């Protein structure tokens, strides 16, 4: 989320600053990367359940720690998040 906001990526709000409380940083992780980003916490899962377009590969980007192993990570915006 921070990288997207800092680079002005449209559609990533980050309104709560990464506190897992707003959902404006939702992304859908490409299937090939799902196992590398780890699993969502219970708090993140609860936030994602409130999303208007839930998907198996939905994540809050603020909860994905950027580590060298994620170099090349591909995520997309949910359809309802222009
Ligand atoms: S920035 Fe608010 S939930 Fe991710």
Sheet with most strands: strand arrangement = 2-1-3
In angstroms, what is the radius of gyration?
12 Å
How would you sum up the major sheet? 3 strands, antiparallel
User: In the CATH hierarchy, what is the superfamily?
Assistant: Beta-grasp domain
User: Given the C-alpha coordinates, what overall shape results?
Assistant: globular
Going by CATH, the architecture would be Roll
Total count of helical runs of at least 4 residues: 3
Question: Structural class, judged by helices and strands?
Answer: alpha+beta
Bound molecules: FE2/S2 (inorganic) cluster
Helix content: 10-25%
Number of domains: 1
How many beta-strand runs? Answer: 3
CATH class: Alpha Beta
| SSE pattern, N- to C-terminal | HEHHEE
CATH topology: Ubiquitin-like (UB roll)
Q: What is the rounded distance between the termini? A: 15 Å
Which percent band covers the strand fraction? 5-15%
Mean of pLDDT:
93
Residue runs with pLDDT of under 50 for 5 or more positions:
none
Outline the fold blueprint.
Blueprint: H1 2-6, E1 26-29, H2 34-37, H3 42-49, E2 58-60, E3 75-76
Antiparallel strand pairs: 1-2, 1-3
Bound molecules: FE2/S2 (inorganic) cluster.
FE2/S2 (inorganic) cluster is lined by residues 1, 14-16, 18-25, 60, 62.
